[in-house]
Amino acid sequence: MDASAPVLSVQQLDYKYEQQNVLEGVNFTIQQGSFAGLVGPNGSGKTTLIQLILGLLRLQKGTIELFGTPIHKFKNWNKVSFVSQKANTFNRGFPATVYEVVSMGLTGKVGYFRFLNKGHKAQIYRALENVGMREYADRNIGDLSGGQQQRVFIARSLVSQPELLILDEPTVGVDTENVERFYKMLARLNEKEGITLLLVSHDIGTITSYVSDLLCLNKTIHYHGNPSEFHQKSDDELSQFYGHSMHSISHNH
Ligand SMILES: Nc1ncnc2c1ncn2[C@@H]1O[C@H](COP(=O)(O)OP(=O)(O)OP(=O)(O)O)[C@@H](O)[C@H]1O
């Protein structure tokens, strides 16, 4: 594995469902240490792209490399972690503490946490600390707010110490006043722990204050670069980059 290779490289990627082209000529790379935000309107292909990156959909055309290895040969999946938007629609009656839920990131099963050693326990507390949920360790997961649960799920994905964390619409279900707090927590993880983040969102408003790289997807990548340069562009250029629904989207949030 090439240590200097980008964490993620996507080249000439096309994807279609039956006759519908969903991705066309998608090219981008994400370097180690970036906090990348992938934004695009509904139906722009974000979920399809993420599923391809996670190896959940079979490549049709183009290449994807993770840490310099073509995805079909990639085996180091412990370096990659994924938090889906559905993570916080957790069954409120689920009888597990925050500590137990985070331990699942190591064991895959609730209950097995009893067999974890001291080092594992320290990792669990550290992951909770990193998302500001250390003092909730003994609370029942079902008793927490959506935003707090989402932070616990991020801790669960951090406990295996991934190098790339992919988050799909992680603020769905997080109350608005906690959204900024949530992004600040991600920015801290990125800076202090050096974890490369790829955050998928349809919310171009808030994320641009936090991400280092902005990628606008609408079938293809219309913009990849610095978020502040993106905002200096004229409205016409913005709608070209983002697609026609740019305005309605930025005004909705
Ligand atoms: N399994 C599927 N079979 C057929 N068409 C699909 C399938 N999954 C997605 N699509 C279509 O592909 C296009 C892109 O969908 P995708 O879910 O990747 O976009 P998205 O940007 O994640 O959208 P959203 O923000 O609404 O989740 C849409 O037109 C969608 O209807």
TrEMBL record:
Keyword Transferase belongs to the record: no
InterPro entries linked to this entry: AAA+_ATPase (IPR003593), ABC_transporter-like_ATP-bd (IPR003439), ABC_transporter-like_CS (IPR017871), Metal_Ion_Import_ABC (IPR050153), P-loop_NTPase (IPR027417)
CDD domains cross-referenced by the UniProt entry: ABC_Metallic_Cations
Keyword annotations: ATP-binding, Nucleotide-binding, Transport
Record lineage: Bacteria, Bacillati, Bacillota, Bacilli, Bacillales
Record has ATP-binding as a keyword: yes
Single GO MF annotation: ATP binding
Highest taxon, organism lineage: Bacteria
Domain ABC transporter intervals: 8-243
Protein name: Metal ABC transporter ATP-binding protein
SUPFAM superfamilies tied to this protein: P-loop containing nucleoside triphosphate hydrolases
Family named by the database record: Belongs to the ABC transporter superfamily.
